[in-house]
């Protein structure tokens, strides 16, 4: 309801991209609400055209991630609520999203939420081509710290968890089961 | 252009049919972890299907989007390999089918990351980490089943023997595949087959499974739209809603 005392000025052409980034940083990931879509590395680029059109480039985490449509709608709704009329979304596949793009702040928030963050930098894609990536003998031995007690005496119980981006672990010290955000 | 559309439909159809088969196990997996894994793999494959169909539909330019391609084609229009439409059977059957597919899919996707078509290489780059994870998981399961109990070993060996004749179709290139190789779009069959055989041999050795002869007679026809009776049942379930209520949307 607009009243005479309405003080929020509608944003129009001239809004800086930094402002858009700040607004986007307020949008939560629908699956893991403590982390924003900017922390997660889903937003790749923001462009403001002279005519006021705003183009946001996003990249999917996993090809089949059902959250992507929800995220795209959330971006459009949020920016329109801030007064941007012309919001365009662009989907970018390459370079493929990697957990390396997750911010340190995002990793800390994940841990606070009870999800162990990715335990290492993802190896260069070209390293996967050697075949070592799929050999059972060359499987990476990860040290995943328990987000509850910090112990590194943990073991995997399932290679997939509640979403494609997570695996299930359990802590051998505090005995808590927990989600681990896979290196990807 | 039609050749590339056909090639993209084959990629999408393989992923979609396997995804649909795995979805049938949702809530019925032999263990909770397996149930989650199968459905997550199905989800990855469905996402990849959408990317292939979206591109195929754009290239074709006939107004067919991903939903039309998935729900409004009959069995003879599907170009998936026969391996993917084989029944889920017991868990050894499901995992051997998955392992044969994952091993081919991984080496194919690696090859497609170097495709001369930038859209295809981008989709392959997006999919590579997913299919790598799938192959690690199914290879691990094959070792656990093959080198497990007498019963699991026997069932896994039986599944290998039954499904082996469906493992060669992906390497049997026809004019569509060869045209894609010539354009630098797709990797050559001989390279993929050598990599696939070496990987399967490595995993089977560890799984104490006997590998059937590489030169055994192989089934074919799926890529050209000649399918087994199984595909019709899969499509009947998958396409029911759009057949009963054409154009229904959320």
TrEMBL record, chain A:
Residues 135-182 form the PaaD zinc beta ribbon domain. Residues 18-81 form the MIP18 family-like domain. Signal peptide: none annotated. Pfam families: FeS_assembly_P, Zn_ribbon_PaaD. PANTHER family: 1,2-PHENYLACETYL-COA EPOXIDASE, SUBUNIT D-RELATED, FE-S PROTEIN MATURATION AUXILIARY FACTOR YITW. This is Phenylacetate-CoA oxygenase subunit PaaJ. It comes from Duganella vulcania.
Automatic annotation (TrEMBL), chain B:
Gene3D superfamilies: 1.20.1260.10. It comes from the Bacteria. One of its GO terms (biological process) is phenylacetate catabolic process. InterPro entries: Aromatic_CoA_ox/epox, Ferritin-like, Ferritin-like_SF, PaaA_PaaC, PaaC. SUPFAM superfamilies: Ferritin-like (SSF47240). GO terms for cellular component: cytosol. This is Phenylacetate-CoA oxygenase subunit PaaC.
């Amino acid at each position: 309801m607009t009243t005479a005392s309405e003080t929020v000025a509608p944003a129009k052409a001239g809004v800086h991209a930094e402002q858009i980034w700040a607004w986007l940083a307020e949008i939560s990931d629908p699956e893991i609400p403590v982390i924003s879509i900017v922390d997660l590395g889903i937003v790749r680029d923001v462009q403001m055209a002279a005519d006021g059109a705003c183009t946001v480039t996003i990249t999917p985490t996993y090809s089949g991630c059902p959250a992507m449509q929800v995220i795209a709608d959330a971006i459009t709704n949020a920016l329109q609520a801030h007064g941007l009329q012309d919001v365009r979304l662009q989907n970018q596949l390459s370079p493929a999203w990697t957990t390396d793009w997750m911010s340190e702040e995002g990793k800390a928030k994940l841990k606070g939420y009870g999800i162990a963050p990715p335990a290492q930098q993802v190896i260069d894609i070209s390293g996967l081509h050697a075949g070592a990536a799929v050999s059972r003998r060359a499987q990476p031995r990860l040290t995943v710290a328990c987000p509850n007690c910090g112990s590194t005496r943990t073991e995997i119980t399932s290679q997939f968890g509640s979403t494609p981006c997570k695996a299930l672990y359990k802590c051998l010290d505090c005995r808590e089961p927990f989600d681990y955000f896979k290196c990807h | 252009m039609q050749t590339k559309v056909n090639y993209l439909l084959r990629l999408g159809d393989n992923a979609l049919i396997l995804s649909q088969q795995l979805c049938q196990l949702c809530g019925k997996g032999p263990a909770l972890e397996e149930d989650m894994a199968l459905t997550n793999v199905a989800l990855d494959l469905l996402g990849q299907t959408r990317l292939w169909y979206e591109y195929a539909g754009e290239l074709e330019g006939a107004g067919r989007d991903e939903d039309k391609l998935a729900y409004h084609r009959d069995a003879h229009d599907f170009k998936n390999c026969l391996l993917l439409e084989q029944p889920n059977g017991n868990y050894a059957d499901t995992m051997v089918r998955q392992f044969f597919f994952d091993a081919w899919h991984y080496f194919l996707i690696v090859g497609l990351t170097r495709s001369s078509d930038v859209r295809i290489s981008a989709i392959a780059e997006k999919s590579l980490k997913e299919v790598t994870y799938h192959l690690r998981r199914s290879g691990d399961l094959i070792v656990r089943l093959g080198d497990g109990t007498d019963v699991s070993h026997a069932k896994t060996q039986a599944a290998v023997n039954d499904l082996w004749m469906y493992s060669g179709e992906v390497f049997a290139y026809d004019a569509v595949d060869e045209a894609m190789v010539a354009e630098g779009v797709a990797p050559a069959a001989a390279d993929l087959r050598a990599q696939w055989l070496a990987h399967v041999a490595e995993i089977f050795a560890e799984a104490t499974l006997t590998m059937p002869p590489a030169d055994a007679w192989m089934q074919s026809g799926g890529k050209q739209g000649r399918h087994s009776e199984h595909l019709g049942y899969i499509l009947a379930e998958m396409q029911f809603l759009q057949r009963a209520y054409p154009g229904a949307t959320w």
